[in-house]
Amino acid sequence: MKKKKGKTFRFQKFLFVFALFLIMVSPLMIVFEKSTLSEVNYEVEKIKKEISKQQKENESLEMKINELASLENIQKVIQKEGLVYNNDNIKNIE
User: What distance in Å separates the CA atoms of residue 29 and residue 1, rounded to the nearest whole number?
Assistant: First the structure.
């Protein structure tokens, strides 16, 4: 029976050391987790700004495309190049 008490004492000592280890490591893990979360949030905000910038640029380019593709602009280019619009040359296919 003395051996059983010795094993129990060692097991209790192990549990105590393990619990102490967890208590000491937990704050470090929490700080590490918060740091990682903060870094990820920073990257997310950075990417959101890049997306917003790209969307504004896309809108600007779309407006420029619409401006260049307008009928008035096309007619100016046609006249500048010396071309003539002839309705008789247009054929409709049904």
Answer: 41
